[in-house]
Amino acid sequence: MSSTRSMDLNHRLGLVLHQLRIERGLALETVADVAGITPRQLARIEQGLVAPAIPVLVRMAHQFGMTLTRISELVQLPELSQAATTDVAPRSRARSAQVDLDQPPTAAQLAARETARARAVEFGFTPREQDIAVLLVSGVTTASGIAQALGNQPQTVKNIMHAIFVKAGTTDRVQLALRLLELW
């Protein structure tokens, strides 16, 4: 994937997140606080300069009352100004990026994991790469968190993540998660 497409995706995602925040009358500081980031970081995300980490995007989606799937659909719209403003996801003020893998997964989480594993196989991921892909869509998004879950070193996970990005045609973890979940 070209860096132009990556920048376009980040820009489009930023536009959608900005529009959703404005439509709901939420201050930058309020959304940033709930998302667990600084207002400056949120501004950079909304400007399309950086992609948000997956846990941050999940918290923002919940605050907007939306699912990641719906936000992905809005990013794909030719006219971002026509973005729908309602969805069925409950609001959440959870701030922790920590994922408790000991808790039983919900049906939606199981479906996401199955989809991610199937897509990982389609992309030709090795079994270890598939495990990392499943952890990624489960919400474990840091190299150290993935390394801890798999009993690897963080640098090893980073090296494997680079190989995964190449195979999936992505440049960051958000794009990879969207691609694995067949949202992009």
Summarize the structure.
With 184 residues, this protein is mostly helical.
For the biggest sheet, the summary is:
none
Top-tier CATH class of the largest domain: Mainly Alpha
Q: Name the helix and strand elements from N-terminus to C-terminus, one letter apiece.
A: HHHHHHHHHH
Derived structural class: mainly alpha
- The CATH architecture of the largest domain can be given as Orthogonal Bundle
Total number of beta strands: 0
What's the total helix number? 10
Q: What is the gyration radius calculated from CA atoms? A: 16 Å
How many angstroms does the end-to-end distance come to?
12 Å
Number of domains: 2
Q: Helical residue percent? A: 55-70%
Task: State the CATH topology of the largest domain.
Answer: 434 Repressor (Amino-terminal Domain)
Broad shape: globular
Measured by DSSP, the beta-strand proportion falls in under 5%
Average pLDDT works out at: 78
